[in-house]
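Hi, here's the filled form for the chain we discussed.

Project: internal
Contact: R.S.
Residues: 218
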Amino acid sequence: MYRLSLYYNVNFEYIMESERYLTLNMEIPSAIINIFTPILQRGFYVESVVGISVMEFLLNFGLEKEYIHNNIKTVFLNSKPVDDLNNAIINDNSTLSLSGAMPGLVGAVMRINSPFQSFRMSISHTTSDNEQTHSTKRTGLLNIKLFNTVLSNTANLFIQNGFLVDREALLSLIYNNKKDFKKMIIRSNGNRLNYDDICKLLSKHRDNVIKVKGIVIE
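And the returned structure, exactly as it came back:
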C-alpha cells in the first residue's frame, strides 16, 4: 500500500543547469483533475522569471488582473502575509502561497489589506529598498502552493503550463489513484505509456524530479 507523502524535500538546485528530468505529458479528463489536489496544496515548482513582483509573476503566468484583484484574497511569500502584490519581490526558490478568503478571525487578519493587519505587523512581508533596487531578473524556480477557491480555479492553468514535482510523491499519487490514471493518455518523448509502463519508468528513473504537463479535456 502506497500513500501520498505530505512531507518531502527535494533539492532542485541542479534543474536550471540540466534538461535531464523526465517529462510526462498527460491528457486529463476534467472530471478527475482533483486527484492532483494533494500535490497542488503541498507545493510544486514552476520555472519562472524571478526578481519580479508577485503581481508581475501572476500576470505573466496567465491570470487576469481582474481575477487577481477579485479572487486572490490571501497571499503568503515565504510564509509572510503580503498586502502589496506590486512590491513583494519573488526570488529564486521563494515560496508563494495563494488562497481565496480564508474563514474566521485568522482568515480576516491574514487577508490582503485587512483592516486588522496591525495585529500581524511583526510577521507581514516587507520589501526592503535594497531588494527592490538590486533584484535581477533571471530564470529561477518558484515553489507554489494553492488553496481553496484559487486551487479549484487555477489548477488547470498550472497543470497546463507544467510543473516540477518529487518523483516519489508523483509515484505515490499514481498508485493511490490507479483507476483514474488508467483513464488518462500519458506520453513521454512521444511514446504513449500504459499504467504499468509509467510505474516502471518512475520506479527506475535516476532523477528525483519529474516534470508534469497536462491538457485538461472534457
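Let me know if anything looks off before we file it.
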